[in-house]
Write a structure and sequence with these properties.
The chain is 42% helix and 17% strand. The chain has a domain of 206 residues: NAD(P)-binding Rossmann-like Domain (Rossmann fold, 3-Layer(aba) Sandwich), CATH 3.40.50.720. It is globular, with a radius of gyration of 19 Å. Helix 5 links the parallel strand 5 and strand 6. Helix 4 runs parallel beside helix 5 and helix 6 runs parallel beside helix 8. By secondary structure, it is an alpha/beta fold. The strands form three sheets. It has a seven-stranded parallel sheet, with helices on both faces. Strands 7-9-11 form a three-stranded mixed sheet. The structure holds nicotinamide-adenine-dinucleotide (NAD) and thymidine-5'-diphospho-beta-D-xylose (TDX). Thymidine-5'-diphospho-beta-D-xylose binds next to helix 6 and strand 8.
């Protein structure tokens, strides 16, 4: 019996599409509607096997009339839609300001008018970065200090949600999650870019020295955490989501992918670094674990290895999903000035 209506924004994107699949499989009580603008990052093929089980609306979260109607017809909104790639935000920030800030504002006004429950999806990047030797991890009370146009726009959207909760009493929660990996991720992003390079017999491309640290979480662990917050979270609260998998880009991530794909461990190129490149992210998700009893499945190095193997298998088996985008993505990086640079391998 589908008795709760769930509106998922950005459901044709990476995490949103996985959330739709996860919800249909594990939470059959929900009746799902997706709204997605189908930008370059949205791929309707990610939902093609479930289109008969959901309502799919092609539309822009910045459209007040559309969002007013869709929000009026749902019980809960889970808000994933965003411009999500840091490198793109350095080339052209405008869509980030429009979608991430104005789009969130538009949703907030509809949620306020119709008195609906909102869960807002955010990121670790709002906190800025940590030094490599800093033993601390980000918590729910770490001050905001974003570095890129992308992370600044996400920080702005979090502030809007908190302001609407405090001033207008909307029923909202926020989660800030670590770097996700898994199936259906756009191949502009680090892990799928390297996997698809290797599948095309091209070397992985590492920004700068590759010493940057990211805290990785399998997308199913993220989505399980979102459902846990929907079910048990305290209205008005923020929850950090992370699986304690902070690893350097070069040693752990590239070398683990190369090993799993039977390539020599130094078979990669160093390329031009990202301007303003955040050094290290690390998340402390103890509040979510302690208060709501959530636990990730893909933890520690073995969990990461298992999750990466599953992701490699997915990109290997689903070349039709990504192959037509590969040349476009790679020429975009070259046009932005990415070049192979000479950095001694650590
Ligand atoms: P994505 O770029 O893969 O997908 C974004 C989706 O939003 C696409 O389907 C796109 O078409 C849609 N969209 C963009 N602008 C829209 C608009 N104006 N109206 C309607 N739809 C629009 O992004 P993702 O990696 O799946 O990220 C989803 C959310 O999770 C984002 O809010 C992001 O900030 C957050 N997040 C991502 C990560 C990560 O590692 N990918 C980590 C933490 C948080
Ligand atoms: O080709 C590459 N080579 C490389 O070394 C690419 C694309 C990236 N990198 C590095 C940059 C980062 O240190 O890998 C790391 C991860 O890069 P991205 O996949 O671009 O992710 P990041 O910038 O860390 O942001 C991601 O996590 C937080 C998501 O894209 C955001 O949407 C999310 O908020």
């Amino acid at each position: 019996m589908n008795n709760k209506r769930l509106l998922i924004t950005g459901g044709a994107g990476f995490i949103g599409a996985n959330f739709v699949h996860y919800t249909l499989k594990n939470r059959p009580e929900y009746q799902v509607t997706v709204v997605d603008k189908l930008t370059y990052a949205g791929n309707p093929d990610s939902l093609k096997n479930v289109l008969d089980k959901i309502d799919f609306v092609t539309g822009d979260i910045c459209d007040p009339e559309l969002m007013d109607k869709l929000v009026s017809e749902t019980d809960i909104v889970v808000h994933f839609a965003a411009e999500s790639h840091n490198d793109n935000s350095l080339k052209n920030p405008r869509p980030f300001i429009e979608t991430n800030i104005m789009g969130t504002y538009t949703i907030l006004e509809a949620v306020r008018k119709h008195g609906k429950r909102l869960h807002h999806i955010s990121t670790d990047e709002v906190f800025g970065d940590l030094e490599l030797d800093d033993p601390n991890r980000f918590t729910e009370t770490t001050p905001y200090n974003p570095s890129s146009p992308y992370s600044a726009s996400k920080a702005a959207s979090d502030h809007l949600v908190r302001a609407w909760a405090r001033s207008f009493g909307i029923q909202a929660t926020i989660s800030n999650c670590a770097n996700n990996y898994g199936p259906y991720q756009h191949i502009e992003k680090f892990i799928p870019r390297q996997i698809t390079n290797i599948l095309n017999d091209e070397k992985p491309r590492l920004y700068g020295e590759g010493l940057n640290v990211r805290d990785w979480i399998h997308v199913d662990d993220h989505n399980n955490a979102v459902h846990t917050i929907l079910e048990k979270g305290t209205i008005g609260d923020t929850y950090i989501i992370g699986a304690d998998n902070d690893h350097t880009n070069n040693k752990m991530v590239i070398e683990m992918i190369l090993e799993l794909m039977d390539k020599p461990k130094n078979w990669y190129d160093h390329v031009t670094d990202r301007p303003g490149h955040d050094m290290r992210y690390a998340m402390d998700s103890s509040k979510l674990r302690r208060e709501l009893g959530w636990m990730p499945q893909y933890t520690d190095t073995n969990g990461m290895r298992e999750g990466l193997q599953q992701t490699i298998d997915w990109y290997t088996a689903n070349k039709d999903w990504w192959q037509s985008q590969k040349a476009v993505v790679e020429s975009g990086y070259r046009e932005a000035g990415e070049k192979v640079v000479d950095v001694p391998k650590a």
